[in-house]
C-alpha cells in the first residue's frame, strides 16, 4: 500500500456567513488557541511526516500565498472559478496539481491529532473519517452501506431526513484518497461537472464511490469543529479548544 506523503487543502471559500470577518481574512486564518487553523493543521501534518502540502485558494488568496512563501513544503494553486463554483471545482484543481495518493482536508476546521492517526494508518488505501454527533451546526451527515470488513460510503447530506434510518456519523473533512479512488474521481469528473457544475466535493466523492468503495472510519468522541459563522467560531474557541488542549 502506497504511503501518503502529501496533503491538499480546500481553501477557496468566500466565508460569506462570517460577515465582516470573512471579508478580511480567509477562514483558514481564523485563530483558535492563538494559532490559525491552517498553520496548526500544517504543523500536525508535518509532525505526522507529511511535508508536501498544496492549498487550493480562491477568496483572499494572497494570505495563503504569503504563508506558502514562509512555510517550507507548502505551495498554493488558485481556483479562478471559486466565486462561481462549489468545492468540487477546487478538488479538481488540487487533483490536477498533484499525483498519487493524498490526504484531502478542509481548511476551515480544527481537530485533534487522533484524526490524522486514524486516517494515516496503512490498513486502507482510501478512508473517509467520521465522528459522532457534535452539535456544532451545519453538519454534513454520512450514510453507510455494508462493506468488507468496514462500512463504505453510501451518501452524504446536510439534511438528516434525506435517508431512512440514522446516519453513520458526521463528516469531519479529512479523507485519505488512494490510487484507485483517485482514478475513480478522474473517471467520473466529466459526467459529474456536466450534471452539477457548481457541486460540492462531497457529492463528487459519492459519485466516485459508486465505482470504487470508500471505507468509513468513525471516532465517536473525536474532538473537532468546523467554522462557518460567528456562532461556530465562538463555540470552537470557548468549548472545543479547551477539550482539545486538554487531550493534547
UniProtKB/TrEMBL annotation:
Organism domain of life: Bacteria
Keywords: Kinase, Magnesium, Nucleotidyltransferase, Transferase
GO molecular function: kinase activity; nucleotidyltransferase activity
Presence of keyword Transferase: yes
Cleaved signal peptide residues: none
Domain MobA-like NTP transferase: 7-161
CDD domains noted in UniProt: PC_cytidylyltransferase
Alphabetical list of Gene3D superfamilies matching this protein: Spore Coat Polysaccharide Biosynthesis Protein SpsA, Chain A
Name of protein: Choline kinase
Taxonomic source organism: Aquabacter spiritensis
Amino acid at each position: 500500500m502506497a504511503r501518503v506523503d502529501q496533503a491538499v487543502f480546500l481553501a477557496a471559500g468566500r466565508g460569506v456567513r462570517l460577515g465582516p470577518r470573512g471579508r478580511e481574512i480567509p477562514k483558514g486564518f481564523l485563530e483558535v488557541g492563538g494559532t490559525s487553523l491552517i498553520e496548526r493543521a500544517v504543523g500536525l501534518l508535518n509532525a505526522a511526516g507529511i511535508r508536501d502540502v498544496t492549498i487550493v485558494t480562491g477568496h483572499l488568496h494572497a494570505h495563503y500565498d504569503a504563508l506558502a512563501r514562509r512555510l517550507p513544503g507548502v505551495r498554493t494553486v488558485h481556483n479562478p472559478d471559486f466565486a462561481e463554483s462549489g468545492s468540487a471545482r477546487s478538488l479538481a484543481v488540487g487533483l490536477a496539481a498533484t499525483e498519487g495518493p493524498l490526504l484531502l482536508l478542509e481548511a476551515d476546521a480544527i481537530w485533534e491529532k487522533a484524526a490524522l492517526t486514524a486516517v494515516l494508518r496503512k490498513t486502507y488505501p482510501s478512508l473517509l473519517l467520521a465522528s459522532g454527533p457534535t452539535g456544532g451546526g451545519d453538519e454534513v451527515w454520512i450514510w453507510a452501506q455494508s462493506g468488507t470488513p468496514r462500512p463504505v460510503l453510501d451518501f452524504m447530506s446536510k439534511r438528516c431526513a434525506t435517508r431512512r434510518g440514522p446516519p453513520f456519523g458526521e463528516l469531519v473533512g479529512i479523507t485519505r484518497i488512494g490510487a484507485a479512488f483517485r482514478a475513480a474521481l478522474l473517471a467520473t469528473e466529466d459526467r459529474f461537472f456536466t450534471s452539477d457544475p457548481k457541486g460540492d466535493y462531497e457529492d463528487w466523492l459519492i459519485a466516485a464511490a459508486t465505482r470504487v468503495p470508500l471505507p468509513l472510519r468513525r471516532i465517536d468522541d473525536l474532538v473537532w469543529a468546523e467554522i462557518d459563522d460567528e456562532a461556530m467560531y465562538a463555540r470552537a474557541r470557548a468549548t472545543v479548544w479547551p477539550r482539545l488542549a486538554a487531550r493534547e
